[in-house]
Amino acid sequence: MSSPSRRQFLSVAAASAVVPAVAGLRGASAAPANPAKGLKIGVASYSLRKFPFDKMLAACQAMDVKYLTLKDVHLPRTEPLDATRATRQKIEAAGITVMGGGTISWTVNDEQIIRKDFEYAKAGGFATIVCAPSPDVLDTVEKLAKEYDIKIAIHNHGPEDKYFPAPKDALALISKRDPRMGLCIDIGHAARAGADIVDSVRIAGPRLHDLHMKDLADPKKKDSQVAVGKGALDIPGLFRALLKSGFAGHVSLEYEIDADDPVVGMRESLAYMRGVQAALLT
After folding, report:
1. DSSP type of residue 153
2. Are 43 and 63 in contact, with CB atoms under 8 Å apart?
3. How far is CA 231 from CA 108, 143, 190, 216, 234, in A?
4. How far apart are CA 51 and CA 45, in angstroms?
5. Which residues of 210-223 are buried (b: 16+ CB within 10 A; e: fewer)?
6. pLDDT in tens, 130-177
7. Is the pTM above the cut of 0.70?
8. Could you tell me the domains of the chain?
9. How far is CA 119 from CA 85, 109, 122, in A?
10. What does the pLDDT look like over 53-80, one tens digit per residue?
11. Closest Cα to residue 43, out of 266, 224, 232, 215?
């Protein structure tokens, strides 16, 4: 069997194996999912950070990725806006929808600096900016989110995060702000911070704008990341909660290991994620 054919076979086999395994997990307590409202399963380009843009895009096409969140290594914030728009068009021509970009850090309350990032996001076609702000910039960020009509999703970074270790920490500061102000739940970092990833989806409700997918062999250890489905995180429960809530944002694979050769693990992760969704929608 040729290498591409073998990879396709393994991906299909992995997804097929998930369906019967997960189907029995739905249970009577799970709200029936609407097949017309499936999840937007895709990739954060940070997973392919060692790949130049063209190689990253080709890899996404080969993995049948339809949704993409861009890291600035693939869409530089320093380029002219015309170049940003041209790159966006190239992605769209490949049959991939740009869902957003980031993570962008905002630590200085300078409206001109932050505005430049919103201009970049607009040119890049971002519906959502995944960000890591300091609390004192939130007034400015909220003002610009309204002006540009772009959602912002605060990314939690686990116990090491000075401001937002867990999703609830960001939610506490934005719950009374404009509805464009929301969360990007990174489920690996959330678990390490002691959060229940399934309950976090319920608590966030419509404030959940984006999701970073990964899996951990040990929910307390950052360096224990594995392919999604091989770890200890409750992915079926998470997907059930997302489907029940009607989540319309990006379920974005952020595969942080095997940086030089991530595609095998990414394929395995995507096959599992797609298989879980297929089981829950059956």
Report:
1. E
2. yes
3. 37, 40, 15, 5, 9
4. 9
5. bbbbbbbeebeeee
6. 999 999 999 999 999 999 999 999 999 999 999 999 999 999 999 999
7. yes
8. 34-266 (3.20.20.150)
9. 11, 17, 5
10. 999 999 999 999 999 999 999 999 999 9
11. 266
